[in-house]
Amino acid sequence: MKVAEFLAGKFGQARVLYDEFHEADLARLNLDILLPELYRTESELVVVFLCAEYSQKRWCSLEWRYIRQLIATEHEGRIMLMSFDDINGIPELGILPGDGYVFIENRSAGQISELILERLRIDSGGKKHDSTPQFEKYPDWLSVPHYNWTGLPGALLRADLAVVPFHRRDEELKTWTSWAKGSGTYPVALIIGAGGMGKTRFARELCVTLRIERFVCGFVDPSDTDQCVNWLSARANLPSLLVIDYAETAVDQVAEILRVVARRRLTATRILLLARGAGDWWAQLKRKGAGVGDLLTGEPEGLEPLAMNIGQARESYELAVSAFADRFQVARPESAAEVFDSPEDKRALILHMKALLAVQNIKAKGIDPVLQAVLDREAEYWGKERANRQLPKFLEDGFERLAGIVSGYNGVRTKNEAVAVIGKIGFFRDQPQAVVESVANLFHDCYPGASWIEPIQPDLLKEYLVEKATREYPDDVRRIIFEINLQ
Questions:
Q1: What is the b/e burial string over 46-70, where b = at least 16 CB atoms within 10 angstroms of the residue's CB?
Q2: In a domain, 129, yes or no
Q3: Is residue 422 domain-shared with residue 344, that is, in the same domain?
Q4: Is the pLDDT of residue 116 over 90?
Q5: Does residue 266 lie within any of the structural domains?
Q6: What percentage of the chain carries pLDDT values higher than 70?
Q7: At what angle do helices 459-472 and 399-408 cross, to 10 degrees?
Q8: How far is it, in rounded angstroms, from Cα 120 to Cα 132?
Q9: Higher pLDDT, residue 58 or 458
Q10: Are residues 381 and 355 both part of a single domain?
């Protein structure tokens, strides 16, 4: 079912109870004994897909027998009914005409999935069910990256949106899950790989998998180092996993976290670092005192390409095409005739960029042409937003430059800062204040986040855009990015 694939793209297959995702686990005797516990204590939301023949099907009847046990209990609120037919109740199952359900006959998988996600968002503010096992509360600063899509096509490639279902890394996931849980193995690990290889997505899936088991884990932003250190200083030696992305840019913060791990001998704590390579920064970290270097006993481990051969590349590409077509709610294009034998196809991100372009009826070959084609689709979205706001069309000529400079500036924190930065760009320097503010609001709506305007993502697209802006508009870049950052 495409709905299950869509949800797996958001949460990972391990968190979606769909038989095709768990064939090995469900292929056991006495499955009818296992199901009650899965529905009663292991599920946050039980979505029942009804149809006119539902009550006549053996496994559907068995399924409903246990779901029905939740009705009239404190768990009743975790049931969500959807129906392909206008059933108006199924009395033999206890579903009455007054019970609410969503009619989904003409809805796409994407629309159905969004309704499920909306219900989860609504329910997330409620109290935990009594049957839910108690576990250590996740600190607010320890999170699994998640991005709310604004409609920008390029954002569908972000690791924190996870549109393409996790695939082909199950064995690696098992290995790293075992490492995270083990108390006798090396406490700090470094995964390295070129941009676009899938490091962040892999670590995100690792955290999702562990959180299902109530394991305390997540990503630590370097800006939250003080909170992390305070938390580590106060907690018992309990299992946890802290992931630090772009570790090569945060050596001092990483060292500060490792110091408290070493000082308190938190042998059950695991630190997973992600970086593009192990260069001088890694050697510098090893030279840090106070026990930091003693924790770095493991060697850096490279993340293998998602696709090791042409067949695997095509498989990943086709999976991405289906995921993107579903998200755009368009017909899936025919399979590509090209052979996936270019070195660039070993990068998961480039492969999936090609899939995204295919859904938009565009073909490109080579890293730069692919990146430019994705950027062109981004520019089309900026143009539509400009038209919706009834701003002059000529402003579009400055949008790419703006995006590159703001991304090189690493985003802007406030609206006032955004207006000041945009006003320094040569193209916008002579525009009225009201126009500059409107352009700032447009990009804020396109790229919201921790900063008022976030840099464009994913990173490969950001780097391509910043390099292009630096090459084509050196005066703007020097005046805005370099001079301001040196102040």
A1: bbbbbbeebbeeeebeebbebbeeb
A2: no
A3: no
A4: no
A5: yes
A6: 84
A7: 110
A8: 16
A9: 458
A10: no
